[in-house]
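Step 1: inspect the first sequence and its tokens.
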Amino acid sequence: MVQTDGSLIERERSCLIVVDVQQYFLDKLPLHERGPLVQRMAWLMRVARALDIPIVATAEDVERNGPLVPDLAGLLPPETAVFNKMIFGLMSQADIRAAVDATKRDCFVLMDCDEPRYHEAPMLDASLVVLRKTERSLEFVRREFKTPSFLCPDMSIALGPLPRARPPRQDVVWLLREDVEARDHGASLAGVESEDWCGERRSWRFRLKRFVAEELSWHPRSPGWTWPLLAPVHNRVWDSLARERLARGCEVLGRGRVVITDRLHGHLLSLLLGIPHVVLGDRHGKVRNYYETWTRTGGVAPWAQTREEAATLALRLAGTEPHRCE
């Protein structure tokens, strides 16, 4: 499964693959594990149906091993074929690969009943592509895993250039972390106040999203009204909340002629907004690794080690003398 930055996969990108859940293979598992395993799979298929996530199902050598178990076959969308898989490897058989390609999805959740010894099989390697944002993390993935892996910038870059909503109101905006990833950048400067956009306003969208998420987590297996009714609401509110947060982030950054930030997305949104800015590091090196991989060239966003150095660089970007906005 190709994961996104968040803890949730994206419905519009996802496809559920039901791989060879046949009685022949279930019988190889301990008896007490078989029923609960099928129940969990059935729940996940109902979730996929409720969210309009496409499902592709296979059964290995049906003539020899039997069909997909009835409890799951009965949950497939109407007219959904169960592919007779005769080649070990999900993407190695032409008709299965064509069905997967036809979904036009790029995030796949594989669901099977294989024994643990098969979990590193070529079938998984052929179905997983890893995208990493920094050269350092890409090097780790290529060293530890056999799956195809590629360097990819943060998805926020896909937003493209963003307009400023209004002219700047102050010389410098300091957007600095206040959470566990914050790094000590030296003593605070006199007369300088920083903020962190994690202290966001609790809008009705935020409260509704939290309520729906809690309801879904408390009733994960409800076959009745919970998932069919609330899951679409959750997704619509999530999208609306994301747009709200983007607008708020642009508004915070757009207040200043120059920005100083140790947040990765503060850096990236400043680039998209065309705001000169100074970049500081976070505790874990995430911002520095991304900066070294993608954005250090061009001179728009110099790097600073301390608050004092950042302030000096910011004034240089803004002009030799601070500009006083009325």
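Step 2: inspect the second sequence and its tokens, then contrast the two.
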Amino acid sequence: MEENIVQGQPEEIKNSSAGAWPKVALFSVLGLVLVGGLVFAALKIGVPTKPQQKACSAEAKICPDGSAVGRTGPNCEFAPCPAPATKDETASWKVYTSTKHKITFKYPASWYTLSEDLKIMDGTVVVSFSTSDPKLGGNLSGIEIVSYSNPRRLQLIDWWRKQIGEGEYANEVESKYLFKTTINSLPALRQEPDSAPENLEMTDIFVARDGTVFKIRATNDIVNQDVNKEIFNLILYALKFLD
């Protein structure tokens, strides 16, 4: 009898150990899952969610050096202007002032005056300049400033839409070639050329002031680049309205 009892004990221990291993393995797996979940939750809470960058509007600000900067960053603020150059590019330029139209700006001294205070169908040409002698003919690059009456003091974009009219062409121009900008802290619109006839490209700036809308047009010879964007922006930066 004693021999049988001794021989039966190892069998019980063996069976008991074999049944315990699946339980140990199961609890180990559950423990690893729990620990992993806690670690993941801690990392998720500890790491701040990166804010998504919103799209900034396509506005531009004219800088003193004639360049233009747009809005950027999470708050869509204007990018800083480049550091001012030691040399004033407009030091040798002339100054034009119209007390009647209450406007003043600087322009290259070598330019020719084409017209001044000239009545046209729907407005008045305040002044226009050419980069070359008009007697020689050819493409006349330069600057033209026209004033239009805005007695109802419409918002600038509403005035622009009224001038250009309605239709497919107007919608295309507004969506592709019209941009918001500022001229000396005043809201303005910049209309880029949608075509370039006879090697010329024309860029228009519209700005409203005291019941008047001014259109500042730069006509640039594509070949000679007489009135490139840098020169135009320097003129715009120096442009001021008189009180």
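Step 3: confirm your contrast with the notes below.
Confidence is low (pLDDT under 50) at residues 1-9. The CA atoms of residues 161 and 171 lie 9 Å apart.
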